[in-house]
Fold:
Amino acid sequence: MSGFEYASAPESKAIANIASSYGLFINGKFVDPKKGKSFNTINPATEELLSKIGYADKLDIDSAVKSARAAFTKVWSKMPANERGKYLYRIARIMQERAREFAVVETLDNGKPIRESRDTDVPLAAAHFFYHAGWADKLEYVGVGSKPKPVGVVGQIIPWNFPLLMLAWKIAPALAAGNTVVLKPAETTPLTALLFAQVCQQAGLPDGVVNIVTGDGITGAALVNHPDINKIAFTGSTEVGKAIARSISATKKSATLELGGKAANLVFDDAAIDEAVEGIVNGIFFNQGHVCCAGSRLLLQENIAEEVLEKLKKRMSLIRVGDPMDKNTDLGAINSKEQLMRIREISNTGDAEGANRWSPDCTLPTKGFWYPPTIFTGVSQSHRIAREEIFGPVLSVLTFRTPAEGIEKANNTMYGLSAGIWSDKGSKVLWAAKQLKAGVIWSNTFNKFDPASPFGGYKESGWGREGGRHGLAGYLTSDAKVAK
Amino acid sequence: MSRIDVNKTYKLFIGGAFPRSESGRVYEIKGANKKFIANPSLASRKDLRDAVVAAKSAQPGWANATAFNRGQILYRIAEIMEGRSEQFVNEICALEGVTTKVAKSQVDAAIEAWVWYSGWCDKLSSVTGSLNQVSGPFYNFTTPEPLGVVAIFAENKPSLLGVVRTLAPVLAGGNSAVLIASENYPLPAITLSEALATSDVPSGVVNILTGKSAELAPWVGSHMEIDGVDVAGLSKKQEEELKLVGADNLKRIYRFNPDNHPERILSFMEKKTVWHPIGI
Structure:
């Protein structure tokens, strides 16, 4: 059956209104980098230039930190908490008003489907500000004592997979707790952060409370190593997270680290199979698999493996890969050429190590960076594709016989960010949730996020939580710990 | 003729047994009066590794015991210590050179700490967990869970209280511990292990080493099966060095103020958030 074909339903670029160049956002104004350097940001779906972005070096970082410090001591930490909260409410409302613009810019700069930026990234980002706005004058109830104090100036470094959402995860709790921030967006996705800077201006946020410095890893390192930073909040790879932990080891700086993952998605034989298949697809192909908590290791109970795989392949054949601006698109562009190379490199080890690759027939665009939805079966626990984070639309399938074996395989990783459970038996779900060594457990669902829900990992997936009361506590000082 | 004392041989406490150091090494401990008291073991890297193996294998059982059960066992330690109070007082007087009164107040504070942390075991989720109001038809809750194996460098002094106030919170959270006793005042830690061995604390949940912190700290820092470290007994420089190597497996490394505090428990616990759809 050929079925009905989708007509293309493109979102308009017109609303984006991207400037040809952007400076750094320091002390409430857009300023040129001191050395005048810049870099390009492109649309990964077309490789077209979107804008030229200011490149911040050590000197620019220093002026951003100074601006944040002045704003912290003179304005933000002295302001009545309810007033601070009202600024955050304003920001949330303006983000909602400009939601369509944010979604379009995010999709152009990142390559993710407009359906996801429109329905997930942008609304969740606004919700984060709204949620934390309400905390600003209730900090004595967070659970860190009756007189909680902000940490001070926070350096924040975010990745390219959810550029605006990660910004919101970082900035909203930091500001609610009374800190000021210097945020460095990812090199390949700076645009929504710069748009957010305009929102701060529209909201009348006091100068220097939020500073946005664009650049690359060297810029990030300069921020981490700046002596007047009190805390680092980082989302990114475990490798860089460890480097940050080392570089602050002899300082008073604290850190929240949201790092990599290799989540197990366990399907037990009493699961609702059709729902599980939807969950598997959402778990690994959401956002092109550029998700630290992606369900990238599928663990199937052996007696249902064949049935699940057959249904999964059928479902994968319906995934629409292509123009991210098309509202019907399921799988957009890979964010960068560099990331595409990495996905290819690790996936190719799957072939070399003897796993079996399968992808549905799909035509990839000729320009831009693309990778088809892919699964590997016959994967063993020692294969690189079962151990390393691929960060792309590539799923490794393993099997287990007993629930205990399933848990053991699921926990056999240095990571511990998230895990999935599919079963219709309540007691088994809760048993498995308890056994799994991961910070976020999705049972009979996957890849759900909410400002009220703490997110973060066990083991080498990081330090601390983001979201909810537990995440907010990381932006307040503790009276029990010695900061050295 | 006065009776000749039967002196105690102070050994390590690993996996519920009292072995000597595999290295065959000991070091001399003298009292405040400069007189010889004992030759405790000078633990080696291998002893540390053995202790971690014991701690790692005992931890799931301890974590899966009910919180009420863990609380009762911690309380039992207080009971046993109370009965041996005099022994601890004498040991502290001899070592630290303090008066009986001062030593007694230290022993009392140590016993009180066990009682206080005992009561926390079954209240952690209620006080520090949450049912999160997410925007959608989902049941979503967050609970604290044990971190795993925690290494503790006990403070030099107070020799007994310094052990208890670091160890009790680690156990209350469901972790197992490898405690490196005070280098200069290690004997009360070993005597405590005798109380632990008769308090229904499962073998391997607590392991106590005596020796040189400076020798053991780098091995603690680089051991991939140690998940957290309380650096109370380390210098600032040793702490920094340990943090540098501890980054290899992102160890949770903390130093606390002396007071008893629930955050001493929670710092060595993870937070797990579980989502489940609501619907028919």
Notes: Residues 100-120 of chain B form the longest helix (21 residues). Chain B has ten helices and ten strands. The mean pLDDT of chain B is 97. The interface with chain A takes residues 127-128, 130, 132-136, 138, 140, 142, 227, 236, 239-240, 243-244, 246-250, 252, 254-257, 259, 261-264, 267, 270-277 of chain B (CB under 8 Å).
